[in-house]
Specification:
The complex is a heterodimer of chains A (347) and B (312).
Chain A (H helix, E strand, L loop, with lengths): L3 E14 L2 E14 L3 E5 L6 H8 L8 E10 L2 E2 L5 H7 L4 E4 L13 H12 L4 H14 L5 H4 L9 H13 L5 E5 L7 H18 L2 E6 L2 H7 L2 E6 L2 E7 H6 L4 H8 L40 H5 L5 E4 L2 E3 L15 H4 L1 H5 L5
Parallel strand pairs in A: 3-8, 3-9, 6-7, 7-8
Antiparallel strand pairs in A: 1-2, 1-4, 4-5, 9-10, 10-12, 11-12
Helix pairs in contact in A: 3-4, 3-6, 4-6, 6-7
Chain B lengths: L1 H28 L13 H10 L6 H13 L14 H36 L4 H15 L2 H15 L11 H31 L2 H8 L4 H13 L1 H24 L5 H10 L3 H29 L14
Helix pairs in contact in B: 1-12, 4-5, 4-7, 4-10, 4-11, 5-7, 6-7, 6-10, 7-9, 7-10, 8-9, 10-11, 10-12, 11-12
Classes of the chains: A alpha/beta (347), B mainly alpha (312).
The structure holds adenosine-5'-triphosphate and magnesium ion.
């Protein structure tokens, strides 16, 4: 692949709370390449949002502490930049789409102004040109009658339309990287599909890199080039979509895949969930954080945190079962055929 | 919008009618009458007085007459001070009271919003604690105590301000500050908490993610939303300032309307009580209407429509 746009190296983020220090992100590393979509998946609380808000340095300090690591973007470590320097990165080089379009727009500011604001901040552009560009953007993300819509307020838009506005804002200054934190979770299914289409379109035409955070592996299969699986503040497996769906290696990834609804079995769909709950990150376990919930756990899982094992050039998993001395464990069958269902193939 | 205001004016008239009627009958129920104060008046004189002011007429005649006069904007002659028209008292006293009241509101809103905003922006840092302290003092010290303290230290001791009277702008400063202190503290608390809420909201985070700097986010995005509860408070604030000024005018010997109102009550000066009450009611009802209109300008989600209220 081509050169990375963003490189995260061993990022640690803590929160100091009354109950103690929460190690929310514990050594996360990944690259995002030009024009690709990297999906980050994982259960609630696994640190997806914190990791990504760290890129924008949007976490309020205190309570957040960027304890160590590097976030390289354009040859600079974002963690070293001052607030003033970060303002020039936010919205211009890296922009963000938030989860809930019902709350992420200012209720008392006209839509047009919320879009042009970004351009006026980052680009040398007249108010009039900014407005023209806003109209273009609104057309691009599929908002009908943009001239009229420009002067309306958020409450006059439906949820799906608002998320289109948010996307237009995120794209306004031609960012190199777009971070979408569960951009479709708050929307109903048909609207979700439309929003995903808009995002795919945009990526095709603009070559923007996207980090796509989601719970929904169905969405991942649909949009992502590569997938990073997070658990308890760590990335436990990363690979291409094919690697993750055809050849998953980490038992947690199996659990996630297993908990996807089975499209062919419409009767009595009891969702299979992963038993147990994630560890308390004020006092992270010394071994593999997933061990207590892992039916395949070995003795060493409780004692030592596994390193990343290489599966192929792009596929890595952080589990002792990949150690040469570990006993063979088979990938459960039902996991294997999920991918086919979700990509429209038959099994 | 026009339809809405028209509708509201009709409501105001209905409300006024109820207020007029209620004051009229409550006053009849209260013991005593204007001529039954200090000395006992000979029965003959009492009778002729009663007749002169129509106090002997059956209640419905008095009530009917009163309604007609009030609608014509005539609040009648004082029963205590001969040749004093209630309308004249209002015309003399109201401009003074209004000057004082507006000045106090200006201080209360301006300073309150400023203090509240600063406190929110420095949440849990020393400016926040300082501002909270000021607010607690403002809320817990009654305005008449505040007035006496200001009068004693800043006027009597330091001599920076005149002690009392009403002969120019400088005379209005201490009473306005005393009158404003409690509502100012209240507005500061209100602004602080709503500002905190707004600065933690998603759209503020989004504005930051757009690269907008902290202060611009506060003033262009958060402030307008944070002010909505303050605007709602403006109507009760008006009421508070009006009632507060009864006492403050007394302390600073200001010849405003408050003085007439208070003395008219102790004197059971029916016509003046009724006149000032109705007048105050009109002011308050208009203030409420004005606040609603203002609110609809600030919050686009509120649409002023006739019939059912629109928006969310
Ligand atoms: N301000 C904070 N103070 C203390 N702990 C925090 C704070 N913000 C996040 N955390 C902790 O960091 C961890 C990761 O949270 P994060 O929001 O990144 O999860 P997530 O993977 O995005 O989950 P979700 O799917 O629910 O959005 C959680 O354990 C959470 O409790
Ligand atoms: Mg999240």
């Amino acid at each position: 692949m081509n050169e990375p746009v963003l490189q995260m190296k061993d990022l640690h983020v803590d929160f100091s709370t009354y109950a103690g220090t929460v190690n929310a992100v514990r050594g996360v590393s990944f690259d995002v390449y030009k024009g690709e979509t990297l999906a980050i998946v994982g259960e609630s609380g696994s640190g997806k949002s914190v990791t990504n808000q760290a890129i924008m340095k949007l976490l309020p300090q205190p309570p957040a502490i960027y304890s160590s690591g590097e976030i390289l973007f354009d040859g600079k470590n974002l963690l070293d930049l001052s607030e003033k320097q970060m303002e020039k990165v936010r919205g211009k080089d890296i922009s963000m789409i938030f989860q809930d379009p019902m709350t992420s727009l200012n209720p008392t500011m006209k839509i047009g102004k919320q879009i042009t604001e970004v351009m006026l901040k980052h680009q040398k552009i007249s108010k009039n040109d900014a407005k023209k560009r806003a109209l273009e953007l609104m057309k691009m993300v599929g908002i009908p009658m943009p001239e009229r819509r420009l002067n309306q307020y958020p409450h006059e838009f439906s949820g799906g339309m608002r998320q289109r506005v948010v996307i237009a804002i995120a794209l306004a200054a031609d960012p190199k990287l777009l971070i979408a934190d569960e951009p479709t979770t708050a929307l109903d299914v048909t609207i979700q599909a439309q929003i995903l289409d808009v995002m795919k379109e945009i990526q095709k035409s603009s070559q923007t890199s996207i980090i796509f955070i989601t719970h929904d592996l169905g969405v991942v299969a649909n949009v992502a080039d590569r997938v990073a699986v997070m658990y308890a503040g760590e990335i436990v497996e990363v690979g291409t979509v094919e690697d993750i769906f055809y050849n998953p290696q980490h038992p947690y990834t199996w659990g996630l895949l297993g908990s996807m609804p089975d499209l062919n079995e419409d009767r009595d769909q009891r969702l299979r969930t992963i038993e147990g709950s994630p560890p308390d990150l004020t006092d992270p376990p010394k071994g593999d954080a997933f061990a207590p919930r892992n039916p395949y756990a070995m003795k060493i899982d409780y004692e030592q945190n596994p390193p990343m094992f290489k599966v192929n050039d792009q596929h890595f998993a952080k589990t002792w079962r990949l150690h040469p001395d570990a006993p063979e464990t088979e990938i459960p069958d039902i996991i294997k055929n999920r991918y086919l269902q979700y990509t429209g193939g038959d099994n | 919008m026009v339809k809405y205001i028209g509708q509201r004016l009709i409501y105001i008239i209905i409300a006024l009618f109820i207020i007029i009627t209620a004051t009229f009958f409550l006053m009849r129920l209260a013991p005593g009458n204007p001529f039954a104060s200090e000395r006992t008046v000979p029965p003959a004189i009492q009778e002729s007085l009663n007749e002169k002011y129509g106090l002997d007429d059956p209640w419905y005649v008095q009530y009917g007459e009163y309604l007609v006069n009030t609608v014509q904007g005539d609040f009648g002659t004082s029963m205590k001070y001969r040749y004093r028209e209630t309308n004249d008292m209002i015309a003399e006293g109201f401009p003074i009271s209004m000057t004082l009241g507006l000045e106090a509101m200006f201080i209360a809103v301006g300073m309150g919003v400023l203090i509240g905003t600063i406190a929110a922006l420095f949440h849990n840092k020393w400016p926040d604690y300082l501002m909270s302290l000021i607010a607690v003092i403002g809320i817990s010290v009654p305005s008449f105590v505040m007035a006496s303290i200001l009068q004693y230290y800043l006027a009597l001791k330091a001599g920076w301000f005149p002690i009392a009277g009403w002969e120019g702008f400088i005379y209005s400063i201490l009473p306005a500050v005393a009158l404003a202190s409690t509502p100012m503290a209240f507005i500061a608390k209100l602004t602080r908490s709503s500002m905190l809420e707004e600065t933690n909201s998603e759209y503020v985070k989004m504005a930051k993610a757009k690269g907008i700097s902290k202060w611009v986010v506060v003033f262009k995005h958060a402030l307008r939303n944070a002010l909505l509860p303050v605007v709602t408070y403006l109507a009760p604030l008006t009421a508070g300032i009006i009632t507060g000024s009864f006492v403050i005018e007394e302390i600073f010997a200001i010849p405003g309307m408050g003085k007439y109102f208070v003395t008219s009550i102790t004197n059971r000066d029916y016509t003046v009580i009724m006149g000032t009450t109705v007048f105050y009611s009109i002011i308050l009802l208009l203030a409420v209407l004005l606040v609603d209109i203002l609110y609809s300008f600030i919050d686009p989600r509120i649409k002023l429509r006739g019939g059912k209220s629109g928006g969310k």
